[in-house]
Amino acid sequence: MLRLLLLLFVCVGFCAAQGTTYVVLWFDTEDYVDPIADDAALRIANDLTRLGVHATFKVVGEKARVLEARHRRDVIEALGRHSIGYHSDWHSIQPVPALDLEHLGWLEGAAEFQRRQEGGFRDISRIFGITPVCYGQPGSSWAPQSNLALRRMGIHVYLDEGSQVGLNGQPFWYDGLLYVFNMGPYQMRADLGGKTPFAETAREFDAAVRHFAGTGGGLISTYYHPTEFVHTEFWDAVNFSNGATRKRSQWVLPHRRTPEEAERCYRILTEYVQHAKSAPGVQFVTANDLLHIYASPMPPTIDRATLARHFQNGITFLSTPSGDLSAADILLQLLGMPPDYVDGPTFRGATTYNQPQIPELLFEGTVEDVKSFIKTNHRLPSQIFVGSQTLSLGDFAATVAGHLLSAGPVRVARAKLLFEQYFSNDAKGAFDWPIHPIGFAPAELLELGRLQGWTLKPARLR
């Protein structure tokens, strides 16, 4: 009996130490051209309900309105048994988000995004009777200004794929949102086209589960489009490629799969879901669940000398046993301000101050002015005035850190913005999407995204 009890305790301890693998399964529900896509969404939602799995359906505003106009209450109710997200108002009708916001700044761009997108958000809320819990951009039409607008609209999860920003293939906090984005090897799906054998996908999935079991847990992101199950080409690519516009009367239907091919696709999805469900330590979650399984973004309070030394090695986030801090979190604590969320700067300021030291009285006034700016605007300043000259935000942060660690004169320090390594420098590749105009490469959006990198930090499982 004693040996049995000891074995039980060992087994319980071993199981407790295994990290959970969470799987967020989501569907970009967007095709409002071909009614057969309505039936595909219905079939998928009902199949998953029967399997006991809740997914997230990110719905386009026009798709919701079309479902209402076609009296497809069956589809609306079936999707409503899962989580509902928002996938833009018109998806591929120009101007798409990145094109619309390419030349706009942080505040103006957020206002413009909200102006264009809030109507679709409200229509989905009305038609489904559910406030959308997440957002993801159409195609690769990402724009950082959307993050501020989404917070204003009450959305706090960004669920999609893209290469503009990413953090080691796992979720992260960015611009005040929980981002599931650029998941690398942990973005996986069974191939509906049959080119990749299902057994290979199953092996990759099982390897990820084993990895997360030994590292405290993690997330796998899997996505599809209902239209994929019944078409061999995308509805928007055949109508709106390269920035094209067409009247509704000119829209054409994408090429349909045969009924047998469609059934094969449904079987592949079912097989993938059943395989995932049968794996030990795997749990399906929705976008709504993500905010509960990931810890609050509020940072822990850390010794200021520790934070200052971290900034001397480079400006980036810091992970500690008690929690994670973004570069913005760290700067607030170095300034003696209470923990709070603030946005990053709106433009890249320059350092014009050309002396090696700053008189202490002048620097004290500068610090107080920065604190006042942050309290008033809830964002970090782009440049900091030292008399009539300026410091960039990074150089100011490095100078504050150095002065905390060294008594005596205030020595101007130069910053290394290490968090910028998590952002793409390939404007053309990051925004490659058939719907964007040929050659579209909005470097301004990536630059604005990097500026908001002050808010970037890992998301930690509870």
Computed CA radius of gyration, to the nearest angstrom: 24 Å
Mean pLDDT: 95
Total count of strands: 15
Beta strand %: 5-15%
Reading off the top of the CATH hierarchy, the class of the largest domain is best stated as Alpha Beta
Summed up, the domain count is 2
* Shape descriptor: globular
Structural class: alpha/beta
Helical percent range? 40-55%
What's the architecture of the largest domain in CATH terms?
Answer: Alpha-Beta Barrel
Give your account of this protein's structure:
- The protein is α/β, with parallel strands linked by helices.
- The protein has two domains: 18-293, TIM Barrel, CATH 3.20.20; 304-340 and 352-413, no CATH class.
- It contains 17 helices and 15 strands.
- The protein has helices at residues 2-17, 36-51, 61-69, 73-80, 97-101, 106-128, 145-153, 198-214, 237-240, 259-278, 287-293, 304-313, 327-334, 360-377, 393-405, 427-430, 443-451; strands spanning 21-29, 56-59, 83-86, 157-159, 172-174, 177-180, 218-224, 282-285, 318-320, 323-325, 357-358, 383-386, 389-392, 410-411, 457-458.
- Strands 1, 2, 3, 7 and 8 form a five-stranded parallel sheet that branches.
- Helix 6 crosses helix 7, helix 8 (198-214) runs parallel beside helix 10 and helix 12 crosses helix 15 (393-405).
- Mean pLDDT is 95; it is low at 1-16.
